[in-house]
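Sample intake sheet
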Amino acid sequence: MYLNNIINNSMDLNELKKLLDFEDIKTKHEKFVFFIDYFVNWFFNNHDIEKRTNKIGRPRYSEISLCKVLILASSEGITSGRKINTKLLFDTRYQKLMNYETPSYHLINDFKRKSHQIISDLFVDCVKFAQYYQFLDLSTIAIDGSKIRANASKSKILKMEDIYFLQYIFKQEKTQQFTNQIEKSHTISRKDKLIKEAQKYLIETKKEINKNNSKQKKKVRKGCINYFTKAIKSINHYTHAIIELDEMEQILTKSKQRSISTTDKEALWMLNKKGGTDFNYNIQSVNDTKTGIIIDINLIRDPIDLNSLIPEINNVQKNLNITLKNTVILADNGYYSEYALDYMENHNLTAIIPNRTQSMKVKSKNKENKPFGKVNFTYKAEEDTYICPNNKILPFQKEYFSNGTTKKLYYTTECKYCHNQTKCAGYNQYKTITEYGTESRKNMAIKFEDPKEKETYKKRSTIEIVFGNLIKNLEYRQTNSYGLQNVKTELTLLIIAINLKKIFNKITEN
């Protein structure tokens, strides 16, 4: 049984438990569907969002029902509009949430594309919902990033030289003539013949350019031919291609990447965990380490995490309408920067972020592979010295300013008497340890060496569960949508589903 008049903003936890223990709802799966129904109704009631329908023609489907169906589908790892449409045909859970209506997959996908703000607000209210029922601890929060493979084909890529060439070819009168002839053709054989002639013209034009320019001797790439062929099939495609090429030129210029995928122009080449490169997006997630509830999610077009720490902290404070002065922020070395550390100190925020050396110490492989690397030198903050693996002291020697950064040098002349000199110092007379000596870096390094802080830092591993859940349980290894905003909406729905499951389990547990 699904009720629409159960919303009560002042409902306490016991009342909510009783609501989920309704007699007609027996299984846990049914209770979770009921909870999704309740939560979405609660959200739309709070935001006073009216159900918009067209008065003329076929009415639009309810935004409330569509949101419920999208969250339920996301909880099962379903992001495809076609698969959701199939569920609406055969699965009674989906049918009840959608009031036994069956929107097409086109409409489902269209709703997702046009409802970025509603879904973003749903996520914020999901976190506030957890906060209201005191399911957030917030004594420690962790931030981490992970790459997600974009739905971008590697066979449909263009380099900057391809874009320039296509821009030139589309300005030619002959290309426009081919487009007009192909669109007016009524038989498939005639169209195919004209397309082959146009492709031949494309290749010959490239050869002529190569003759006039000795530097350009490359053939027309397959991606270039495919893009040209698609563009000349109709005047609308042709006009769109001219605008799209200008957009891709701007994107490549800003990103400074070598190529772009025509299937998802906003995806960037990034390193994956296997050491190769893919068209990826970078997921930024913040979670409450005690409860595992995700309190912020973001998607960025940046291969590194360095510039994401401060925006994520500000998002959390804004969404929950709190300050994090009593919260310990945990992040790995990928977020370590002097600007971030100074920001923490200036805003009275507590963070534990290891520097590169401290981060390497956590991994045993680095200690074994580099026995005389900096990772195996111990820093003594009280004496401001380093201890080498052979227990020799490397005292502080001098400080200097280079490339906008203060650097400190530690070394000892006793290295030349050491039997491991060549292994440790190489061709130099002695081993030199360079430390970036700003006050904020020094304070953070000292803090991380505290055993209590190291123990607290171990809680950061809870955020890995978030990505593990996405990849293993929900099988979200590649995006289904195209474009940064559409992928972000898709990801946000998955995180809402994960959070609602955690909240639901906390409400129903004894």
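Comment: The longest strand covers residues 277-288. The chain is about 50% helix and 15% strand.
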